[in-house]
Design goal:
Length: 301
C-alpha cells in the first residue's frame, strides 16, 4: 500500500528527512514514532503529496506521489492531529459534506452516514452541533469522517492526543475493528502503549532517519533487557555504588530515579530488601524503554 525509497527533504541547510525507506503492507497497522522535531509531520506531508520532496520516491496505493498526488489522496482517509470539523454543520452534515468532497453522490453518502455514526458511537447525535460534542466524540467523528469514502489506507496523526483514558479506549476499539476488517493504517503517536497495542510493525524516526523498525515485541526483545527495576528514595547513591554495576546490565539515572535494566530482577529485589529506605517498581521492559534508549531522554521542543 505504501513504498518509500530514500526520501529526503531540506529546509534551507537543514535536512529534516534524511533517506527514509518505508514499506507498509496491505491490511497492517504501521506505526511511525519519534520525538518532537524528528521529522514525523514532514514525512506525513510528503507521503500525502502536500509538499515536494528533494529526493527519493513515494508510491501510495499504487500511485506515484507527488506526480499524481491528488489522485492518490482520493484513496486515502486522514485523521489530522487537530480536529477540523465544520462548526456550522451538524454531526451528520459534516459526514455528508465530506463525502461530497470526494465526488460521492448524495444517495451514496446518505447510505454511508448511519453506518459511520454507529461505528463512531454517535447514532443519537446525528443532529447535534459540533459545539455540543465532547473531545472524545469529536475525535470519533473525525475518524468516521475519514472513512466516508471507504479509503484504501488511513493516515492517523496522533488520534488520541488530549483525550482522557475512557475516550482513548473507545478510539482504540474503533481502530481494532478497522484493523480486523483489513484496513491499512499508518499511525503516528506519542503514546507507546498505543503503538504497542495497535501496530503490527513500526519505525522509530529520529533526526530525520529511521533508527529502528520491526514488530513492537521484536524491538523490545532486540534492544532492551527483559526487566526494569525503578529505584528511588534515600540512600540511592550509596546503593548504586555498592550494587549497581554487579546487578544491572545497564543503569540510567534520571533525576531521583535509577532505572536498572536487568536479566535477573529477583537479585536486584533481594538486594533492595536490605535497604528499607529505598522504594522500587519492578516491571517488564516495554516499547517506551526502547524509544528512550534510541532517542534519548532529553526534552525536545
Amino acid at each position: 500500500m505504501l513504498t518509500v525509497r530514500n526520501l529526503t527533504k531540506r529546509y534551507g541547510s537543514t535536512e529534516v528527512v534524511r533517506g527514509v525507506d518505508l514499506d507498509v503492507r496491505q491490511g497492517e497497522c504501521f506505526g511511525l514514532l519519534g520525538p518532537n522535531g524528528a521529522g514525523k509531520t514532514t514525512t506525513l506531508r510528503l507521503l500525502l503529496g502536500l509538499i515536494e520532496p528533494d529526493g527519493g520516491s513515494i508510491d501510495l496505493a499504487g500511485i506515484p506521489v507527488p506526480a499524481r498526488a491528488r489522485e492518490a489522496r482520493m484513496k486515502v482517509g486522514v485523521v489530522p492531529q487537530m480536529d477540523n470539523l465544520d462548526p456550522d454543520f451538524t454531526v451528520a452534515e459534516n459526514l455528508q459534506a465530506y463525502g461530497r468532497y470526494f465526488g460521492m453522490d448524495r444517495k451514496s453518502v446518505a447510505a454511508r452516514v448511519p453506518q459511520l455514526l454507529e461505528f463512531a458511537g454517535l447514532a443519537n447525535k446525528a443532529d447535534a452541533k459540533i459545539s455540543q460534542l465532547s473531545g472524545g466524540m469529536k475525535r470519533r467523528l473525525t475518524l468516521a469522517r475519514a472513512l466516508v469514502h471507504d479509503p484504501d489506507i488511513l493516515f492517523l496523526d496522533e488520534p488520541t492526543t488530549g483525550l482522557d483514558p475512557q475516550a482513548r479506549h473507545l478510539i482504540w476499539q474503533g481502530l481494532r475493528r478497522l484493523i480486523n476488517a483489513g484496513k491499512t493504517i499508518v499511525l503516528t503517536t506519542h503514546f507507546m502503549d498505543e503503538a504497542e497495542r495497535l501496530t503490527d510493525r513500526l519505525a522509530i524516526l529520529d533526526h530525520g532517519r529511521i533508527v529502528a523498525e520491526g514488530a513492537p515485541r521484536a524491538l523490545i526483545e532486540t534492544h532492551i533487557e527483559p526487566a526494569v527495576v525503578e529505584v528511588y528514595g534515600e540512600g540511592l547513591e550509596a546503593w548504586t555504588e555498592l550494587h549497581g554495576a554487579s546487578l544491572c546490565q545497564r543503569l540510567e539515572r534520571v533525576g531521583e530515579t535509577l532505572f536498572c535494566y536487568t536479566t535477573a530482577p529477583d537479585n536486584v529485589i533481594e538486594a533492595l530488601k536490605h535497604a528499607p529506605a529505598l522504594r522500587y517498581l519492578h516491571r517488564p521492559s516495554n516499547l517506551e524503554d526502547v524509544f528512550l534508549k534510541l532517542t534519548g531522554r532529553d526534552l525536545r521542543d
